[in-house]
Design brief:
Helix content: 25-40%
Strand order of the largest sheet: 4-3-2-1-7-6-5
Structural class: alpha+beta
Order of helices and strands: EEEHEEEEH
Number of helices: 2
Number of domains: 1
Number of strands: 7
Largest sheet: 7 strands, antiparallel
Length: 145
């Protein structure tokens, strides 16, 4: 998704529940594109002693960026609205569940769902066109007899 130059549909902060034992909520900078969701660790300034000694390392190394591509996404389930948050789960094709939360007015769950449905619709249209082209190609050489 990064390399393909997809335009951002929505950008902002989301909180993701960690996979660890404590399951802490960690803020992630998120970019929603037409292809999926990018999760980027929030920028952290380098410690003051590093600033004079050497140039700062890149704030967002590519290895830290997590891509949730719509081709690997099954559903977005809205779990509950509680207090100021909406809690929702992204279910991946292999069964992995990733929990998120955001302020209710941000509407991340709706935006992700809408983009995923549009992506799946585009893929279905391409599949139908491809099937039709194959059928026409197979039928063309024989011609009427």
């Amino acid at each position: 998704m990064l390399e393909s130059g997809c335009k951002a549909v929505k950008e902002g902060m989301l909180e993701k529940r960690s996979d660890g034992l404590l399951q802490l909520w960690k803020k992630k900078r998120c970019i929603l594109t037409e292809e999926g969701l990018l999760l980027i660790p929030p920028k952290q300034p380098p410690p003051p002693q590093q600033q004079q000694q050497q140039p700062a390392p890149p704030a967002e190394p590519a290895a830290k960026i997590k891509e949730l591509h719509f081709s690997n996404m099954k559903t977005v389930d809205c779990v509950e609205r509680k207090g100021k948050y909406v809690y929702f789960t992204v279910v991946m094709a292999e069964g992995k569940e990733i929990d998120f939360r955001c302020a209710q007015e941000q509407g991340w769950n709706a935006a992700i769902t809408l983009q995923m449905v549009q992506y799946k619709n585009r893929q279905a249209i391409l599949a139908v066109r491809s099937t039709r082209q194959k059928q026409q190609h197979l039928a063309a050489p024989h011609g009427p007899r």
